[in-house]
Each structure stands twice: as structure tokens, then as C-alpha cells.
Design brief:
Blueprint lengths: L1 E9 L2 E7 L4 E5 L6 H11 L15 E8 L3 E8 L4 E5 L2 E3 L1 H8 L3 E4 L13 H8 L1 H32 L3 H17 L5 H13 L1 H16 L4 H15 L6 H28 L4 H21 L3 H19 L1 H45 L8 E8 L11 E8 L7 E2 H4 L2 H18 L4 E5 L7 H14 L4 E5 L3 H4 L4 E8 L9 E6 L2 H13 L4 H16 L1
Helix pairs in contact: 4-12, 5-10, 5-11, 6-10, 7-9, 8-9, 10-11, 12-14, 14-15, 17-18
Length: about 550
């Protein structure tokens, strides 16, 4: 449930704090006062699109914070430069994370949502949502089977493409593979040879330098000999100055390191190759590797990757029919599983459709729609037209009277009827959905009088199961609210200050005055009397 909404510097709103309770909350105000800004604010913390154009004129940033039950606080800041800053419970977040956290808690319906009914593609989703407990697992199973079949179909197509390659292409591939396998390059082999070449090409000079270094360490009077003499002298000297023992130990460690280094030089001298034939062999091998890279690379790694692909193609070509038979068998098995999953999903939808239609008719009955009838038109699609939603398409049919023929809802219902059918839909979907907060933005557009009262009563009934927030222009709807906020625009012409939108709670006489304004455009005695009657009627129901 939405507990509080804080808006700062958004559109014409400087700053408002709106606490919300359970039940039905109504927001009213004159046209252009800024009622829909409140919904724009909620859309921002739900992860909707936002940009610098939404900032209050002259503001550097706009901020929206929403607190929900369950200790969830979502905040979004829009910067004048176009940047966004999102917070979830005080920690930096992303727009996507806001949508994940807040989206399931709020179901927002705009004043044009009834136009969704004009698109039959949406109708299947209404049925699925109304019976999510049984349909969703079957739809998930169908979509999993669809993904499996698509994977096997792709593998079969790829195999067929390989097998239908021209004889010339296959022969060219065999020749290239034979050439690469003849040389048999190893990963990193070219780099390894290049690292050895300087030592091979300069073996004589390298040996002389190493011998000089070894002699400087090991010859008589050289470093190791002199270090040994220093150790002997310090061994004698420490009798007179014990502190010299530490210095002698350091020099001893150095002598050990020098000795190890000298041994390493001796070993390296023993492994220096003075063999011109070995050098020539490595240069020849490098030339072969570079030739492969030039023809099939340009790097040796790419040559190795090509070898793997050519070997796979050759293997397929060699056992092509056997592999093709296996791929066809896998595709047929996956298709059979998909068809089975589709049949189960389609059957469950037909079963649940009867319950859905009963619920829709019951929800529509109080909305002054008369004895309307609803039905579904199911169409089984050919296999090639199956989609992620299933193997069917369906459309809601509508008959405005008991004697009239059922026809597609989008072609027969008026705008006012569509609004009320949408409200009836939301009534039954609201009972099925997990969202606890339902928000309606002027869903009562195009209706009034007794119909408006019926819509208000339906929203009131819906608020017994969900928190409901309604932006409305109808007094008959507003009268049913448990809480009532009025949105006003102040400032403007003749005012030194900037135009701004304010939101204030009203009750008692102030609420009666607002209902009177909505009914008659003024607060005359007659309008106030009428307003009291409307409020009393809503309270009595």
C-alpha cells in the first residue's frame, strides 16, 4: 500500500507531502490544475521515463519519494542536465530496479486505457491475468517448449545449410584443413619461437658475456673469493665486537645468493645452442606459421579457430545423413512436446473463459450497462502463426441488449461503454492481481449522472480489497471517497509570484463546497444543497 508521496519541483508543484490511507482516495480540481502531475510523479518512482522538461521552471532538479508498507522507500531525482538519481531504501539504485521493486505494488490505469479494448491482441492477456494461478504455469511450460523447439529447428536449419554447401566449397574447405593439419600449429607457438630467436641468433656473443659474468663471480680473486675473505675477517672481528655478527650474517646471505647465481650462469652456458641447423629449423617453422596466418588468419589463434570449424564441417559432411536424421528426430520430438503444451494451455483457457465471462458480466451489471452479454471468439491458429502467447487468438464479443447479436467489442461499444467495461475488467483483475494499490486517472471520462454514481460505487467496492486512488472530474465519483484531496493552481495573471500547483485535503464544509463546484461550477445555496444530497447518498450505500 502507498503510505506517503513527497513531490518537489515537479512541473508546477513546488513541494507537497501526501499521506494515503487504505480505502478510496479521490483527487479533484479544475481542468489544468495539475491533477495528472501526481500520477506522473508515481510513474517516475515506478521506473517510467523522465526528463528535464518535467522540472518546475527555474528548478535545478525535481525529486519524488514514495513510501510503501513493508518498509520500502523509493526515490527518484531528475537533474536539469538530464541525469537521473534513483534510491531504494536510501541506497543508490537504477531505474530498472525501481520498476522491479515498485511496479508490482501499483497498478496504474490512465484515462485512455479503455482504448486497449479496441485492440483484440490485448484480450488474451485479460483472461490470463484473471486465472493466473492455473494458466501461468501452463503458459510458462508452453513458452519453454516453444524455446526448445526453436532451438532444435535452428540446429536442423544450420545442419541442412552445411550439407547443402556446394561441392566446390566443401573441397576448398578440405584443402585448407589439410594444409593447416599438415603444419599442425600449436597455440602460442609462433610467439614462443620469436622469444627464442635472439639467443639462437647471437649464441656466440651470449656465451662470451655469460662466461665473463661467471668469471667475475667465481675466478680467483673474484666476487665469491673476496666475499669469503670478508667473512673470515668478520668471523675474527666479532670476538671484539659482537655487533658485527649481524653484518657478517648479511654478507653471508649475499654470498649464498651470488653462489646460486653463478650456478645458474653455469647451467645456462651448458644449454646455449651453437647449432646453425637448429636455428634454421626454427626460422623455417616460423615461416610456415606466418604463412598460415597470412592465408587464413591474420593471427595464429584465428587459424586454429578456422581449423576447428573446418573439422566440424568435414565431420558433418562425412556423416551427414546420420546427423541429419538425428536432427530431424530431435526437431519432431520438440514439436510434439510443443503441440502437447499448446493443447493443455488452450484447453485451460477455454475452461477459465466461462468463469471470466460470468465475473465480467457480474462486475458490469452495477455500472448501468443494462443486460449486456459477453463472450469470447476463439480462433486456433495454424502452427506457423503460433507466438509466445500460445496457439490461439481470442476476442471479447459484446451484445448491449439480451436480443442483440454478439459482435466484437471494439466495433460496437461506445466510448462511455468501453470505459465502464474497462472498469469492470479492472474489478475482476484487481481481485486476481497482487498489486495492492490501484490508481485510476479519469476513467469516468464520457459518463455522468446515474452512471457516474454506479462507477463511484464500483470503485468503492473495489477499495474494500485494494487501496484505490482516483483522479476524477465527477462529483458522483468523488462523493464515495474515504479521503478527498483538491488540486489547485495558484498565482499567474495579476500575481507577482510564479504559477504553482497545490494539493490540500478537504473534509466537512470544504469538501461539500468542492462537490458543489464539481456539480454546478459554483457554491450557491442550491449547489451546496445538491452536494450534501450526493454525499449523503454515497455514504448511505
Amino acid at each position: 500500500m502507498l503510505e506517503e508521496l513527497h513531490i518537489c519541483d515537479l512541473a508546477l508543484i513546488e513541494e507537497v507531502w501526501l499521506p494515503f490511507e487504505a480505502g478510496l482516495t479521490v483527487l479533484t480540481g479544475e481542468t489544468g490544475a495539475g491533477k495528472t502531475v501526481l500520477l506522473s510523479a508515481l510513474q517516475l518512482v515506478m521506473g517510467g521515463r523522465g526528463d528535464a522538461n518535467m522540472l518546475r521552471p527555474g528548478a535545478d532538479s525535481a525529486r519524488v519519494e514514495a513510501q510503501f508498507t513493508g518498509d520500502l522507500v523509493a526515490a527518484r531525482t531528475l537533474m536539469a542536465g538530464g541525469r537521473n538519481r534513483c534510491l531504494l531504501n536510501g541506497s543508490l539504485s537504477t531505474v530498472g530496479a525501481l520498476a522491479e521493486a515498485v511496479g508490482p505494488r501499483v497498478d496504474l490505469h490512465g484515462q485512455h486505457d479503455h482504448q486497449e479494448l479496441l485492440h483484440p491482441a490485448n484480450h488474451l492477456g485479460y483472461l490470463d491475468r484473471s486465472a493466473a494461478a492455473t494458466i501461468t504455469p501452463l503458459r510458462d511450460a508452453y513458452q519453454g517448449a516453444l524455446a526448445d523447439w526453436q532451438a532444435t529447428r535452428g540446429a536442423l536449419a544450420a545442419l541442412q545449410a552445411q550439407l547443402t554447401a556446394s561441392a566446390e566449397q566443401l573441397e576448398a574447405g578440405r584443402i585448407a584443413l589439410a594444409e593447416i593439419e599438415r603444419i599442425d600449429p600449436q597455440p602460442g607457438e609462433d610467439d614462443e619461437i620469436r622469444s627464442l630467436l635472439p639467443a639462437l641468433e647471437n649464441a656466440g656473443e651470449l656465451a662470451e658475456l655469460l662466461e665473463d659474468a661467471y668469471g667475475a663471480l667465481y675466478d680467483e680473486g673474484a666476487a665469491l673469493d673476496l666475499t669469503g675473505r670478508a667473512l673470515e675477517a668478520l668471523e675474527q672481528a666479532k670476538r671484539f665486537d659482537p655487533a658485527l655478527a649481524a653484518l657478517r650474517a648479511q654478507i653471508d646471505e649475499a654470498r649464498v645468493l651470488l653462489s646460486d647465481g653463478a650456478d645458474g650462469l653455469r647451467d645456462r652456458l651448458g644449454h646455449i645452442e651453437h647449432d646453425p641447423a637448429a636455428l634454421e629449423a626454427r626460422l623455417s617453422r616460423l615461416a610456415e606459421l606466418d604463412g598460415l596466418a597470412k592465408r587464413f588468419g591474420p593471427t595464429l589463434e584465428q587459424v586454429l579457430a578456422l581449423r576447428a570449424r573446418l573439422a566440424a564441417t568435414a565431420a558433418v559432411a562425412g556423416g551427414g545423413q546420420e546427423a541429419l536424421d538425428a536432427a530431424r528426430k530431435a526437431e519432431a520430438s520438440a514439436r510434439a512436446a510443443l503441440e502437447d503444451a499448446a493443447a493443455h494451455l488452450a484447453e485451460e483457457r477455454r475452461v477459465q473463459a466461462a468463469t471470466f465471462l460470468e465475473q465480467l458480466a457480474a462486475a458490469a451489471a452495477p455500472l448501468q450497462l443494462g443486460q449486456v452479454r459477453f463472450d469470447f471468439s476463439f480462433e486456433d491458429l495454424p502452427f506457423e502463426r503460433w507466438t509466445a502467447t500460445g496457439s490461439q487468438k481470442l476476442e471479447i464479443l459484446y451484445a448491449p441488449t439480451p436480443d442483440s447479436a454478439l459482435r466484437p467489442l471494439a466495433k460496437i461499444a461506445s466510448g462511455g461503454e468501453l470505459s465502464r467495461v474497462m472498469l469492470a475488467l479492472q474489478t475482476i483483475l484487481g481481485a486476481a492481481d497482487v498489486a495492492r494499490t490501484l490508481i485510476f486517472d479519469e476513467i469516468d471520462t464520457g459518463i455522468g449522472g446515474a452512471v457516474g454514481t454506479a462507477v463511484g460505487r464500483a470503485l468503492k467496492e473495489l477499495s474494500r480489497r485494494h487501496q484505490v486512488i482516483v483522479v476524477t472530474h465527477l462529483a458522483q465519483v468523488a462523493a464515495f471517497g474515504d479521503a478527498h484531496y483538491v488540486v489547485r493552481k495558484i498565482g499567474g495573471s495579476g500575481d507577482a509570484g510564479q504559477v504553482a500547483t497545490t494539493v490540500s485535503p478537504v473534509s466537512g464544509e470544504r469538501r461539500t463546497a468542492e462537490i458543489a463546484r464539481m456539480l454546478a461550477g459554483d457554491t450557491s445555496e442550491a449547489a451546496l444543497t445538491h452536494a450534501k444530497e450526493v454525499l449523503a447518498s454515497a455514504t448511505a450505500k
